[in-house]
Amino acid sequence: MNDLTELADRFLKTCAARGIMAATAESCTGGMIVAHLTDIAGSSTVVDRGFVTYSNEAKMDMLGVEPATLRAFGAVSAETAREMAAGALARSRAGITLAVTGIAGPDGGSLEKPVGLVWFGMALSGRPAVAEQRIFDNRGRDFIRRETVRHALEMGLKALAV
Q1: Boundaries of each CinA C-terminal domain copy (predicted)?
Q2: Report field, pTM of the whole predicted structure over 0.90
């Protein structure tokens, strides 16, 4: 079992112990988080769904991200990550949602938003959605996406431990 599989397994077991389902809202990872979760046998008792919202239109249509948010802050922002997480919670049976939006490269970065910048959103039932930022070393698209999966699962585990 590799380290991401172990993290995914811990996340699933923690959700099961808390009696809640999980959902993801993914942009830069294109479904990698939910894929790691559903690679594990028995995950259907915990995983409700995964939203892959790569385009701004998908973020608006599937998750209810406000057009004004995207215009004012862009897809890669704390505001969008929070709205993605909250939207996934509202549109699923999940009690926890993990959302990611970022720039995995190799193109698309700028001085303001470099390759490796990822915003994470997380929502738990009954609590406001939160966001946090990471800037991963630009060691290639695969590295950034894998580290994004890792951090999202760790963020979820930390929230569930409270």
Answers
A1: 6-157
A2: yes
